[in-house]
Amino acid sequence: MKGAEPKVTLDLARDSGLTADEYDRILARLGREPTFSELGLFSALWSEHCAYKHSRVFLSRLPTAGPRVLQGPGENAGALDIGDGWAVVFKIESHNHPSFIEPFQGAATGVGGILRDVFTMGARPIAILDSLRFGALDDPRTRHLVNGVVSGISWYGNCFGCPTVGGEIAFAPEYAGNPLVNVMCVGLVRADRLFRARAEGPGNPVFYVGNKTGRDGIHGATMASATFDGHAEERRPTVQVGDPFTEKLLLEACLEAMATGAVVGIQDMGAAGLACCTSEMPARCGTGMDVELSRVPQRETGMTPYEILLSESQERMLLVAARGREDEVRRVFAKWELDAVEIGRVTPGGDLVARLDGEVVARVPVEALTEAPKYTKPVAEPSELAGRRAFDPLTLPEPPDHGTALLRIVGSPTIASKEWAFRQYDHQVGINTLVLPGSDAAVLRVKGTRKALAVKTDGNGRHVFLDPRQGAAMAVAEAARNVSCSGGLPIGVTDCMNFGSPERPEILWQFAEAIEGIAAACRALDMPVVGGNVSFYNETNGQAILPTPVIGVVGLLEDASRRATQWFKAAGHRVALLGPDAVSLGGSEYLWTLHRRLAGRLAPLDLEAERRVQSAVRAAVAAGLATAAHDCSEGGVAVALAEACLTGRAPVGCEAALPAAARPDLTLFGEGPSRVVVSVEPARGREFEALMAESAIQWRWIGLTGGERLVLRVGARVVVDLALEQLESAWRNGFERHMA
Amino acid sequence: MRFGVVVFPGTWSDCDFHYVISEVLHQPVKYVWHRERQLDDLDCVILPGGFSYGDYLRAGAVAGRSPVVEALRDFVAKGGVVLGSCNGFQILCEAGLLPGALMRNECLQYRCQSTHLVVESVETPFTRGLRPGQVLAMPISHGEGKYHADAETLAGLKARNQIVFRYAEADGRVTKAANPNGSLENIAGVANPEGTVLGLMPHPERAAEAAMGGADGLLLFHSLLGSLVEDGSFLKR
Amino acid sequence: MRVRVLVRLKPGILDVQGAAVKRALIGLGFAELAELRVGKVIEVELAAATPAAARARVEEMCRQLLANPVLEDYTIEMADDLAPRGASR
Amino acid sequence: MRVRVLVRLKPGILDVQGAAVKRALIGLGFAELAELRVGKVIEVELAAATPAAARARVEEMCRQLLANPVLEDYTIEMADDLAPRGASR
Ligand SMILES: Nc1ncnc2c1ncn2[C@@H]1O[C@H](COP(=O)(O)OP(=O)(O)O)[C@@H](O)[C@H]1O
Ligand SMILES: [Mg+2]
């Protein structure tokens, strides 16, 4: 078998995804030609996915420090101190390509991967959020994807036993050939019990734990391996299949093993599997690793060292234990009926040595593997963008009837109720979920304390497409605003950057601009970025997706009972609109739904105003003044008010007079940042007014709740007057009817 | 009363039941590992929700043949009380400790939502403090909760008053619309003829605190503990 | 020895999954479809002295775990029964 | 005409169901079990002029809906192939 490995050539290196220049670097670094297995290690670890070759220089712009930060980017997940001895651990990750090939298993294994990232830190996962983007829903292929992805998430999360408490689903034709499946996981751990992916202590044993290894998802380089034997069909990499049951056992076993004190470090075998763990773990602490591949539990026969190193079989971890305490680790994994096999040792010096039956198949300095080349490729603003931005939506005619327009917008699949999806997700297991899906941010209590966490993801590809810098900043602002509306102080961010090919200057420009926007918003709102993920190459036949940074925000409520939901509670409450008046139809849901256009300018974002509005909302919620708080996002204030009327257990009507803009459609459906609708009991109106004055923000009373209609006036003119029943049916059926 | 909460590989409501029993009800409670056969120190055994063994063959099938479930037969014969919720109900049916079986939801999808249950039988320790016709709000979360029994079994269930809960509207009417999974005659929970083994698909532990949206699930426990008054509201001890 | 077990819903029990698949196929233009039912096939490889012994053990597996007698029937097919047939693909 | 389709995971694809059932059976004392895989059986009744025509249509159903080509293989068995065998229960 060992002798059967092909000789490495430049062509083979190219087939493995390396460039000629990168291959030269490898030759120089090793001072010789790599073996086939070594080439596999380089091709995997120097891949964009593992090495962030194109993005690293930009990512360094993000703020990552702060008084709460216990762990910033670079580990399996980030961690923030939330007081009372607890830390919140969270991260978001994409599984876009696998979900396109096989939606059910692709999405399921996406959930599995991010759960492992969180529990390798020693945290128990308490919440999942899913952020999904698909092509147009009238295409049957899209419906097939939506169905597969949602049931895959449902299956994995439910079976594992972590509630899926929030997310978004949006539709745009640009995602037709490349849907997005981003999953965020949030966990809790005692702040002094964080684990890290470090291979400390030469001499310490290295354990392989979890499911057996098969030929799942081995990198494209495997194609080359088919040339050296006659079993091409058999050797073909296979789709990864999730096993949530084993993952659940792995969670319990890992947390139990960690509690013994015998665990030194641990990492999830995700992308590039064993290759990644055996090089990254020692590289973080200047050690090396010596592993015997024949000891790796295998599900299939005749696997080559290359395949064992690069397999992406799911539900596996690499664990470094304290020497002499091996039996404690074995005992725990045996209890949970999982494999835990000692496959090697941590070594001094910095080499990764992989052997098969004692014979060395790879010997590479771990630093060479983890220090991939970094690129600063050219960036260029897309030439057509200026033209698109110059378009003025107000050159289009006003809709003949604004009520009909509102019905169409609340019934568009992107805005309509997503209950069809989230009722398939267990959102309560763990009995922490105080605010279920269906409000702005989900809220989860932290048992044993008075605290709660608010969590939300957001990201509007249309906005980012038209203005990557501001659009991305607005995604940060919106996710944070949702958290603030629930009563949470936004304390940290995780970001998932979904873009096309970075080798195209226009795409890299979008990316670079988006990073600047995220960085600026995070600074202004005082939130460090503690982890994230970059997913490039989201394109099919040269058609890139809308640039889509998905921003996950975690917020902290000091008092779980001081929280708010987005729906009106009763008749007779006064309704206020907080925030600036500036709105735009550029890139809006209105412009897309009614005119199928993606063009125009975004309303300006004033980060200082954003900060103040959010703090005013939080103060109102904390003082118990806000009986509802809902942010205005897609569809503008008209949609926000409609949602506040409809989303509670019993619909509550509303009558409001809106500040006039250039035209009624702009007033109703114009989108702009930093705007929030709040309802207040009349008896507490004065108190609320005082608080708003103190907050020094722009705001006004706009109306009253009550009745069975939504009536909206601009000036003296009634522009919308709809029965709630009619609105509700449009909103409830807008997405679901496609899926029936 | 001493409670035991059974843990199978893949169980996930174990911690939730444990929390409610110890932190809300302040009763002694311990976890019982699935290999355990010794249940003598317990008065009530709980089989919680989850996906025991992944439910990869049929929900509850593998767990239904485990040592602890075998031991339950003896435990019940000696007067012990058993509550199976969600996966626990599926396990009790698979083990033959309760009649019938649970099939895939008729909609072929998983469902996590709130439901209302109307109390049909007050001849179990879990419902003896309630009124027949009383309506309880309790969430469900399952993919295989459609109760099935053949005609003869169903007749037997009715004859012995073993149907304990049905899915209903908020006002107690048993309607097709209130049936979330296609269960036979809206059946949500059944008991053994003695009433000492109760299985139900809904999650009482998720409706045990006002902060979590309702506390009707606690009524089952207060009934069991004998701390209920006539009208079905419970006394503060 | 290779043994195949087919587990199917008992006649009379509504096969919701089968009905959904049937509907979908008819929607795709397979109008000639009269009935469709979905079950499980479990393929087992086990050591046994004789085919009869293998069958007896698999029968036991069915009784103990593989089928739920409230809902399901099962059929056991031995590799020998299966071998001569020409099945496509 | 009656046609039976067996849909199984492709070789090399992790069979989580099979692995779990195998472990459970071994736990119940079936130590002689060497391998177990779980698949689907779909039994179809359809109108067709000839068995060959029926098979062709079912083949088409498999391609369009019944099997997921990324994960699964399928086999089609005609009632004629199946009839003579003596299957129990
Ligand atoms: N895929 C999903 N999974 C879980 N919850 C979802 C999903 N999509 C939407 N939701 C929930 O539906 C509600 C409305 O979502 P959305 O319209 O995206 O909110 P917003 O406009 O505040 O961003 C939120 O509570 C959200 O968490
Ligand atoms: Mg919102």
**Spatial sequence of strands, sheet with the most strands of chain B:** 2-1-3-4-11-10-9-6-7
Tell me the overall shape of chain A.
globular
Rg of chain B, rounded, reads 16 Å
Order of helices and strands of chain B: EHEEHEHEEEEHEEEH
Helix content of chain A: 25-40%
State the name of the first-level CATH class of chain B.
Alpha Beta
Strand content bin of chain B: 15-25%
The radius of gyration computed from the alpha-carbon positions of chain A, rounded to a whole number of angstroms, is 26 Å
Shape descriptor of chain B reads globular
Mean of pLDDT of chain B = 94
Largest sheet of chain B: 9 strands, mixed
**For the terminal residues of chain A, how far apart are their CA atoms?**
53 Å
The chain-level structural class of chain B is alpha/beta
Please tell me about this protein's structure.
The complex is a heterotetramer, with 1 copy of chain A (740 residues), 1 copy of chain B (237 residues) and 2 copies of chain C (89 residues). Helix content of chain A is 36%, strand content 24%. Chain A starts with 9 loop residues before the first helix and ends with a helix. By secondary structure, chain A is of the alpha+beta class. In chain B, the strands form 2 sheets. A 9-stranded mixed sheet of chain B has the order 2-1-3-4-11-10-9-6-7, sandwiched between helices. Chain B has a two-stranded antiparallel ribbon with strand order 5-8. In chain B, strand 3, helix 2 and strand 4 form a beta-alpha-beta unit. Chain B has 237 residues and is of the alpha/beta class. Chain B has one domain: Class I glutamine amidotransferase (GATase) domain (Rossmann fold). With 89 residues, chain C is an alpha+beta fold. A 3-stranded antiparallel sheet of chain C has the order 2-1-3. The longest helix of chain C has 16 residues. At the C-D interface, helix 1, strand 2, helix 2 and strand 3 of C face helix 1, strand 2, helix 2 and strand 3 of D. Strand 2 of chain C pairs antiparallel with strand 2 of chain D, so a sheet runs across the interface. The structure holds adenosine-5'-diphosphate and magnesium ion (MG). The site of magnesium ion has 4 residues of chain A, from loops.
